[in-house]
Amino acid sequence: MYSCVQRSLMIVVCLALVGCEKQPASGDSDRGGNSNVPSSGKGPVENIDADERKAAAKLKPARDPVLDEIYAFRLEVRKAYNNRGFDQLEQMAADLRKKKEVFDNGSWKIVQFYHAFECLDEEPESMWKLHDEIHRAWIEAKPASITANVSYADFLMDYAWYARGSGFADTVTKEGWRLFAQRLEAANAVLKKGRSLAEKDPYWALVSLVVARGEDWDKKDIDALVEEATTTEPTFWEYDVERATSLLPRWHGEPGDWEQYAEQAAARPNGLGDETYARVILELDGYHENIFRESKASWPKTKAGLRKIREKYPRSISLLSGCALLGGLAQDREFAKEMFDALGDNYLPEIWENPERFAHVKHWAETGKW
């Protein structure tokens, strides 16, 4: 499911002991997840003229200071994991659960804590087995730890998608399906154990929702889990992103289902309102060439949410880039120009895919020439 917002969170932090952080798969196997900016679409940008090519040639990749802070945080967590510093990890997670802090792009720090343990799909099987061994050692050392159990369930879920592969369903081997089901079942067993523990963790429900999508749980069971999770943590917007993802037609929904859900999530009392709606659009755009043409997504509601996000997180270049890109997709030139005026020449390759696209959409926002 990964959008360009998500791709902006995919810088690989390579660590010698246990490999690198996992980058998302493509195709209908996406496990979903967490990040903060939209996809640039997959179709070519037409009518890129000579001036735009010249402007593109002058662009240099920029960095998002907020993402740099996230990478530094994840590196610190990963080092503790590599060194099997379980006491340190336990204390870090406990503090994050208590404080409920987010980074300056709205990403919950507890989410980024767990993402620090991820492994690349490109890693050999031996590396995945090493991860498995470290997680088992953590649980052995801390059997009553919600952190150790949630972390292991998250690993098993990732391991399931790794076995399945990144292709569409008809490309998955018989063995891939077997391991996929087996590992999701194992993840679910660990989650059930975690549910019985005294301490609770908001990431538990997010992992459970992704497992539910993979195992195709009954709708009423998923809805009950969403209701429980969002009642406990009404501003944890990743629950809504995952539930909307599971309602895509490629998964377990019908046309219009995810859009209806996004409307309902935005109307939830004590939630984030239109920001939640915009978060869903930012993430699910990656499934579309143009989400506003190909779905019932509301641009006015998206725009209202994006303005809230910009007001709350002005330091995030990735979110600003996402706003500019969505403004272009919606053909709202005034909004797009406002975003580009703030963005300047801060070109993020992970958002725009290539400098020509950035230059083209920016030029259109300034001149109206598409």
Estimated share of beta-strand residues: under 5%
Tally the helices: what do you get?
Answer: 19
Count the strands?
Answer: 0
Order of helices and strands: HHHHHHHHHHHHHHHHHHH
What sort of overall outline do the alpha carbons produce when their principal axes are compared?
A: globular
Structural class: mainly alpha
Q: Summarize model confidence as the mean pLDDT.
A: 89
Low-confidence blocks of residues:
1-29, 32-44
Number of domains: 1
Helix content: 55-70%
Oligomer: single chain
Biggest pleated-sheet summary? none
Radius of gyration: 20 Å
* Termini separation: 28 Å
What does this structure look like?
With 370 residues, this protein is an all-alpha fold. The protein is 61% helix and 0% strand. Mean pLDDT is 89; it is low at 1-29 and 32-44.
What structural keywords apply?
370 residues; mainly alpha; 19 helices
Task: List the SSEs and their pairings.
Layout: H1 4-7, H2 50-57, H3 65-82, H4 86-99, H5 109-115, H6 125-141, H7 146-164, H8 174-195, H9 202-215, H10 219-232, H11 238-246, H12 257-266, H13 274-284, H14 291-294, H15 299-312, H16 317-329, H17 333-343, H18 349-352, H19 355-367
Helix pairs in contact: 2-19, 3-5, 6-7, 7-8, 7-9, 8-9, 9-10, 9-11, 11-12, 11-13, 12-13, 13-15, 15-16, 16-17, 17-19
Write a concise synopsis of the structure shown.
The protein is mainly α and 370 residues long. Helix content is 61%, strand content 0%.
